[in-house]
Amino acid sequence: MTPPAAPQSSNEILVVDDVLVRFDTPDGSVTAVDHVSFGVRPGEFLSVIGPSGCGKSTLFNVIGGLLGHTAGVVSVAGETINGPHQSIGMVFQEESTFPWRSVTDNVAFPLELIGMPKAQRIERARHFISLVGLDGFENRYPNELSGGMRQRVSLARTLASEPKILLMDEPFAALDEQTRLLLGDKVLQIQQQLKQTTLLITHNITEAVQMSDRILVMTYRPGKVKRIVDIDLPRPRTSEIVGSEAFGRYVAQIWADLREEASRGMRDEEDHMMQPAGSKS
Amino acid sequence: MSMTATTPARRFSLANVLPALTGIGTLVAFFLIVELLIQTNMLSRFIVPPPSEIIASFPRVIVEEHVLQRFVQTLGECLTAGVMLIIVGVSGGVLMQRFRLLQQACETWVAALASAPLVLCYPLFLVIFGRNAWTIIMMGFVAGLPPVILKTLEGISGTRKVLVNVGRSFNLTSSQQFWKILFPAALPTIFVGIRLGLIFALINIVGVEFLINFGGLGQLINELAERYDLAGTYAAICFVVLVSVMFFMAVEKAEKWLTRAE
């Protein structure tokens, strides 16, 4: 394990440096992300894990450029970003396929935006559809697919934009455990195949250990970097690794860190509920 | 993890046609019951004519009363009002969603307008447009406008935030965001508004034709009722229903074509 630091080495494609996010509420200022710093190397799979309410999704939105930050710098390949950036592709937690577009048209969406000719973009879209294992479903619409298949369509759509960094916010949160594990395999396989730099936001320890090269553990509110854990498990990995002893040790280590934070979160929520109505923040 | 899809071939089955058969059967049963009640003097034929008489009056109404010409006239008025409703109503809803001030200023009274008995304003429209088709079209248009505006506003405002965020993550311009995400996402709700608007427009168009004794089927119903030709009156009402059915079938086709997947 390594202590939190402000990595600024030149071989990092994504650098989050001393980022602070503060929201003004009627009850005063609330710090959601508190001076968070870390870096992601090209081709690396980094997961950010933390208890509910620790600011993971806020961090996701800041890195993706959907939300402004109060202080600090987010940069991609040395370029500071202050809004959505073409180098970053986002996969969201909620189901985000376009219901009025077929699978092919969903995946071809980013290619359509750059003005790629129709025949070419359909061919490219089919390549990514095949990559996520949805051959044969090209002409189906999202309402004809399962939740896991829709998430794969979202993933293929994001991959079709060929981002330098794939940013995913709990993409499997709404899925059952088996589908989650199998989709984890698929994502890992794609990540290895494309050497895709990936940043996964999750609260699922198993998912994080199964896929990551490193795991960044966040504290409960305000969200700070508590620890960065190197996952030294052999690659290529599949979901079979969840049964190994080493895997169990990592899960136990991270749970020990998270347990304290999750307990704090739970106590905080209980205190909040105990407050008389009208005085809740 | 790779899967392949198989599309089941569409086959004729009783289950597919059962709803339509049940609907037609219910209608036929209703007419038979009415016929029976009239023939057994339980219902006065001076209030409701027997369905058999209504059916028998169709050739007379078609030939002598030029019903097809009137039918085309009413249909034309409905189509004109419908096109205006879609253009002005959808644009109005979009503008209200884009400009918060406009929404805050107008939403309440547009909603209030939806429940106002606008048909009573026909003398005002007669003064403005004269005793011609435009009075009828404008009455239909104004009466159908509120639901189209309100549902367009609701549809666009109700677009799931994650879809908007997908658009933002792909760096869409505001025009792309509207045409590629907000508008298609809102289409099913907009169509609900258009259907409601067309219902209001059709009711008002036939109502005003009846009231000012001008134009198509409404005027015919007025004339036949004044002659106390009950069978003819009801036959003319059947043509109004036919206009309505044709209109809604066309809207349904358009909706299915535009929102194929939903």
Task: Provide the descriptors you would attach to this structure in a database record.
heterodimer; A: 281 residues; alpha/beta; Rossmann fold; six-stranded mixed β-sheet; four-stranded antiparallel β-sheet; 8 helices; disordered N terminus; B: 262 residues; mainly alpha; MetI-like fold; 79% helix; 0% strand
Summarize the structure.
Chain A has a domain at 14-87 and 163-274: Rossmann fold, CATH 3.40.50. Chain A contains eight helices and ten strands. Mean pLDDT of chain A is 87; it is low at 1-8.
- Uncertain parts of chain B: 1-7
Mean pLDDT of chain A: 87
Query: According to CATH, what is the class of chain B?
Result: Mainly Alpha
* Count of discrete structural domains of chain B: 1
Sequence of secondary-structure elements of chain A: EEEHEEEHHHHEHEHEEH
Biggest interchain interface, per-side counts: A-B, 35 and 26 residues
Distance between the termini of chain B: 27 Å
Structural class of chain B: mainly alpha
SSE arrangement of chain B, N to C: HHHHHHHHHH
Task: List how many beta strands of chain B DSSP finds.
Answer: 0
- Biggest pleated sheet of chain B: none
Separation of the first and last Cα atoms of chain A: 36 Å
Structural class by sheet pairing and helices of chain A: alpha/beta
Q: Write out the CATH superfamily name of the domain at 14-87 and 163-274 in chain A.
A: P-loop containing nucleotide triphosphate hydrolases
What is the CATH superfamily classification of chain B? MetI-like
Give the averaged pLDDT of chain B, no decimals.
Answer: 88
Number of helices of chain A: 8
